[in-house]
């Protein structure tokens, strides 16, 4: 394990000490937790128990300290400029926060957020930070093309929009000493995507009825006071103590913009847990200092929740608190689960993978360009749209538990859901098309097979389906066919054999692409074995993550290929038996 030089260790400890002081000054309650270097992982800092504790609240962060679209629009220095960009549609809510992080980092010690930003990672293990040579370790995977495309898009966004905005802001306060480079933007983008949480904020927090601190403040208001919408941000290095502008610039009318602009991350949720009506909860994405230092464990027993206007749980109104469900010993790291995510998502967003990840998945897709070149592509696209089907399908690892080659044969909740979905594709109007005898062992969701049936259709089959749907519509006084009607007609005409053949071809093509890019799964396994035997001690964490990720993709490709080939074989046998009977 790499160790840090004593001087660097001391520098890091000093930064963490300033962070903790900054958090406490800004009314974060660490209670029985603390933040320090995580020795067992490459994650940098983590949250730890300071003492033995039973179940309960470990840390509390006021939501007023969170970096959200609302707080950025009310920034005491640049709030008006951010608001102008937002109103003109130049930035959406995510880019608004990324731009804010970028500007504050360039401002350095003059930023109110300096003590927080100084301890955040300077670089990342995500593929976006790979060199060209490192990226070749992902050749053939979905992440390889996704990373190249994302970098291209980010560079264009930086050059055409972000850089001019940021330099204009910083020049206006005289802190722009040099040209802003792309890496600063990439850093801000990575900070957002690795740390942002989706926060269920009370409606009264986002749109308060009254403001506790206004725009025009006097010297008395700069002194610390009880928590309110005008939370005071304190920079320990500069001694600055500046109240936020309150929420007077954000009214109910602004919610239309915030809730509908582009790919918005602020949305009112009717079905949110505990929601009495649509105005109770608004989901807002943002960074929550303190709690955002928690690292991931899929079995993590701690989690965060949001306290309400009166603070009934924590005593701190409008706050996020970290809670554990099990006793902790001194120096235990407090871990939370980021959700049931496959290695592809974990690697791309957070820069790490999980060996033998139970939530891993394999994506199969049919190229849209191929459908465009199909002489009947337009008709097929219409059939796909009527069934709400896509050209991309995620095949989860746990689907294999109920497959033809599974030794487990358990009926998981996911498997039961899949069985319910399969029934849609087994109805036969004529009674000739029989459901496969192996239906309950089919690992592929009905949505996948339904889309493949359409894509693989021949001209005569398209005509037959059109006639069936037209007859059905006439029998119902010209009522248009439903989604299930279309699915049943396609199933009646086509069956599964050509769909499974196409699926097999797609998986074979993907597996060949993976192996041509980085070798076989066996060669990947040998690389890891040499690393574990310390025969390859120079292997970086990035390289190790690449090998684990791509090996998992090759394993899943082979497993799903075996299932598809066997299903195709059984389908041909049964369909042939029906035709000859």
From TrEMBL:
Pfam families, sorted: Rubis-subs-bind (PF09273)
Superkingdom of the source species: Eukaryota
One example of a Gene Ontology biological process annotation: methylation
Residue intervals of the Rubisco LSMT substrate-binding domain: 421-554
GO molecular function, one term: protein-lysine N-methyltransferase activity
InterPro entries (alphabetical): Rubisco_LSMT_subst-bd, Rubisco_LSMT_subst-bd_sf, SET_dom_sf, SETD3_SETD6_MTase
PANTHER family, alphabetized: SET DOMAIN-CONTAINING PROTEIN, UNCHARACTERIZED PUTATIVE METHYLTRANSFERASE
Name of the featured protein: Rubisco LSMT substrate-binding domain-containing protein
